Amino acid sequence: MIPISDNIYTRRKPIVNSWLIGINMALFLWELKLELTGELGSFINNWSVIPAQISAAATQALFGNPAAWIVVVLRSSSLLVSMFLHGSFSQILGNLLFLWVFGKTVENIFGARRYLAFYLASGIFTGVIQIIAEPNLSVSLIGANGAIASVLGAYLVKFPQTKIYSILPLLIVYIPVEIPAIFYLFWWFAQQLFYGIGSLNIPTSINQPSFAYWVHGVGFLIGAAYMRILQRR
Predict the structure, then answer these.
(1) Mind listing the pLDDT tens digit for each residue in 21-66?
(2) Which of 98, 82, 91, 104 shows the shortest CA–CA distance to 15?
(3) Which one, of 5, 197, 166, lies nearest residue 99 by Cα?
(4) CA-CA distance, 225 to 163, in Å (whole number)?
(5) CB neighbour list of residue 211: distance below 8 Å, 6 or more residues apart
(6) Where is coiled-coil annotated (predicted)?
(7) What are phi and psi of 5, to 5 degrees?
(8) Which three-class secondary structure state does DSSP give residue 228?
């Protein structure tokens, strides 16, 4: 099931959402270049979220090693950068498709600056939760999954019954259909299982099925809670 668009009129152009999609695409092209030169593994290792490294440095810093704070700060920057990296074609295509369909409407509700802050904060907070969930995990975690889950959560709280224009691939025939937005909550989680399709040749483990990887679903709760707060105000 492929979402195409919704039927909600937006007054503003989704400038921030378009820029987020563009940055993700540009960095993925950069990853493809690094894959050809054999530098991709090192790049991912430096800029992905590796819970074991961050938690180890934080523990040393808290127990009296001032120099460890430098490592904590440097490694914590990966919480932001890793949001714009992807490990496979299926992961980036799935993420950006959901971001395009649902993000433009959420940006119209929040406004550009608030939407950007919401997107980045949700992704970073989800990364922190992943580290807390499995502090000894030595696998690299990358992708905008947590941030996009928050966008989906905010959208579904506001428009749970909105019809999403979708395409149902049936062999070589594509049938246009309209599906309630709530369906894509379940479909988003289901498609996480297929994000290994078209994986880049990265000589390290990334996004392995683990509790920490699935914790990015917390992003959905963040988005839903934030939209609830705005509605009450």
Answers:
(1) 999 999 999 999 999 998 998 898 888 888 888 888 888 888 877 7
(2) 104
(3) 5
(4) 22
(5) 133, 134
(6) none
(7) -165, 170
(8) helix
